[in-house]
Design goal:
Largest sheet: none
Number of domains: 2
Shape: extended
Strand content: under 5%
Number of strands: 0
């Protein structure tokens, strides 16, 4: 019994490692293609080895921390807005049969719209990039929150 569990765990780890190896190989191949083509040579730094080489510099200079904090801030605010909006809407959908019937079709339609499709609207409507990004995160997250709350 215990041997079967160990074999199952090792198989999962092996498949995960092979999958990551394939991803890394594809990343390396894409970087090699960029580097070998004179028209795209300026993008060669997006390959895995230049990226890995840049990490110590980014840590030492504080760039990695600054970028992580900025991304975390935008993600946190976007998710918070989705929660603050989605939970009351979901409660209303779950408690009110009339509201659920009225809102189901428009909400299902809005839910199917890809967050990337909202990007041009967000860039035009929002005064800053941060606000546009926060809006896109909120639009992506509000529907799962609302429908999970209503369930």
């Amino acid at each position: 019994m215990a041997v079967d569990v160990i074999v199952m765990v090792l198989r999962r780890l092996l498949f995960s490692a092979v999958g990551l190896g394939i991803l890394f190989a594809l990343w390396w191949f894409g970087g090699w293609l960029l580097e070998s083509n004179p028209a795209t040579m300026s993008f060669a730094d997006f390959g895995p080895f230049p990226t890995i080489d840049a990490v110590p510099y980014m840590v030492q200079s504080g760039t990695l921390l600054d970028a992580s904090l900025a991304s975390g801030y935008r993600l946190g605010i976007g998710l918070l807005l989705a929660i603050v909006t989605g939970i009351p809407v979901g409660i209303l959908m779950g408690r009110s049969n009339v509201f659920r019937k009225l809102s189901n079709t428009p909400f299902q339609f809005l839910r199917m719209v890809s967050p990337l499709s909202w990007e041009p609207i967000a860039v035009i409507a929002m005064p800053t990039w941060d606000q546009a990004i926060i809006f896109l995160i909120s639009m992506a997250a509000v529907w799962p929150v609302a429908f999970a709350t209503a369930a």
